[in-house]
Design goal:
Layout (H helix, E strand, L loop, with lengths): L11 E5 L5 E8 L1 H18 L12 H32 L3 E11 L6 E9 L12 E6 L4 H14 L2 E4 L9 E10 L2 E14 L7 H7 L7 E7 L13 E15 L5 H5 L8 H34 L7 H21 L14 H21 L5 H12 L5 H9 L2 H23 L1 E6 L2 H5 L4 H11 L4
Helix pairs in contact: 1-2, 3-6, 6-11, 7-8, 9-10
């Protein structure tokens, strides 16, 4: 018989709600149900158990019960709790989040089985649309100046360096060896050889920028510095350090010429500067379009969250934090760094709570609207993505050859469809701006934060 079609057992079920999403369900199962499962196990053991001095299948029942009573009772209780818990959820039409915490109250043979299952349920979502919200949509076009700036950026990214016997200046690349000590003792991350730095880019502690400026190749110097109190590496934050530094090389930058050799570095094997500029224009337009969509998506998510405050299932938040920590450990392993160091999980809590809250709102919004990622919606998007590759058919086949890969893409499509529907309900206000303003929004605080995050040791 199909287990889903099996009749539900007779039992008493009561549900309490200690909190908005917390449920405490007390379940009492008649003694006969427990006795029946115990009896079944005893009969099975009587046929299969092996004990010294007895032939298989000839062990007296009293011996079986004496030797295996605790095991049989535990197995029977576990089976009965599993079955009755699922039946109770179905009876009360409850969908739990995660596994329950089980507290056994009575589990004695010959008596009713009684236990308490404590678990969380999905919260009630208040608003599943963004009507009344104003969403800003940037409008910009690619100008010749944007192309010029992009070319200069590409030239800078392909800078060639030429070693010179000259004093170091801002913009020069230095190769240095350094060894740092705190109170005479070396510390993790305080030593490096052939360390490459570019003066003036804000990637060094201020004292290093000052002392290295004007130094010649071969210079030996000592640099005293104090790490900021909020330095990312807590072991050295706020402490004074002394660095012994050797300048091995000073190199001047030389930008490549804009010619056919330069064009070939970016896949343009035929054509002149006009063709190269046309390619850049197309790439910038595509990047801007993708950025606009990402900004609209973010604005829609912010609007959804603004209208929905509710208690979050702790189990989902903890799962999200664990995923973030696992991902971080994977990143540092790829960098060749030890991944077993302690990680402050609370650092990830705020972002984890946001992702869980947004996921719950979107899950309910998708369900309410009946949004599905059928092939009519999925295939055109896969085909569009595939056009950016050399062999589009191979990319399309790759997605459709694996259900998991296709499922991930379907999830993206469902999200896109939801965002499109939500935008139709909101007030979208177009804002014209230059491509540079849109792609490179800069504020003083943002610059300071970026420099702090990118600062190296030293």
């Amino acid at each position: 018989m199909d287990p889903s079609q099996a009749p539900q057992m007779i039992m008493d079920v009561s549900v309490e709600s200690p909190g908005p999403i917390l449920r405490r369900m007390t379940i009492t199962v008649p003694a006969g149900e427990l006795d029946q499962r115990i009896e079944t196990r005893i009969l099975r053991l009587a046929k299969t158990a092996k004990l010294p001095g007895f032939r298989p299948g000839k062990i007296p029942r009293k011996v079986i019960e004496s030797r295996f009573s605790s095991q049989v009772l535990q197995e029977a209780v576990e089976e009965l709790i599993d079955l009755s818990y699922r039946d109770a959820l179905q009876e009360k039409s409850i969908v739990p989040v995660g596994m329950p915490s089980i507290e056994a109250k009575k589990m004695t043979r010959g008596e009713d089985l009684e236990y308490v299952a404590t678990f969380e349920v999905f919260p009630t979502i208040g608003k599943l649309n963004i009507r009344g919200h104003e969403i800003e949509k940037p409008i910009c076009s690619v100008e010749e100046g944007d192309i010029d700036r992009t070319i200069e950026t590409l030239r800078s990214q392909h800078t060639e360096w030429e070693a010179k016997e000259v004093p170091a200046q801002s913009g020069d690349r230095l190769l240095i060896n350094y060894l740092g000590t705190i109170e005479g003792e070396s510390f993790e991350g305080g030593e490096s050889k052939d360390h490459s730095v570019i003066l003036g880019q804000g990637g060094l502690l201020p004292e290093f920028e000052t002392e290295l400026n004007g130094q010649l190749p071969g210079a030996q110097l000592s640099i005293a510095t104090e790490f900021p109190a909020d330095y990312p590496v807590k072991a050295v934050a706020g402490k004074e350090a002394l660095f012994s530094v050797q300048v091995k090389e000073v190199a001047k930058p030389r930008l490549p010429d804009v010619n056919e050799e330069f064009f070939r570095k970016f896949g343009l094997t035929e054509g002149n500067e006009d063709a190269f500029r046309s390619q850049i224009r197309e790439n910038l337009a595509q990047e801007a379009d993708a950025r606009v969509k990402a900004q609209l998506r973010g604005s829609v998510f912010d609007a959804l969250l603004d209208d929905n405050e509710f208690e979050l299932p702790k189990v989902l938040v903890e799962e999200e934090i664990n995923r973030a920590v696992t991902a971080f450990r994977g990143q540092i392993e790829q960098q060749g760094l030890p991944s077993d160091r302690p990680i402050d999980q609370e650092h990830y809590r705020e972002s984890a709570e946001r992702r869980v809250r947004l996921g719950l709102v979107m899950r309910e919004a998708v369900r309410e609207r009946g949004i599905k990622a059928d092939d009519f919606a999925v295939r055109p998007r896969i085909e569009k993505l595939a056009q950016s590759y050399d062999d589009p058919k191979r990319v399309i086949d790759w997605y459709y050859a694996d259900a998991a890969r296709l499922g991930q893409f379907e999830g993206i499509v469902v999200e896109e469809l939801l965002v499109e529907q939500l935008l139709e309900e909101a007030k979208v206000v177009e804002k014209e701006m230059t491509l540079q303003e849109f792609m490179n929004p800069v504020s003083p605080s943002a610059v300071d934060t970026e420099r702090e995050q990118d600062m190296e040791v030293p």
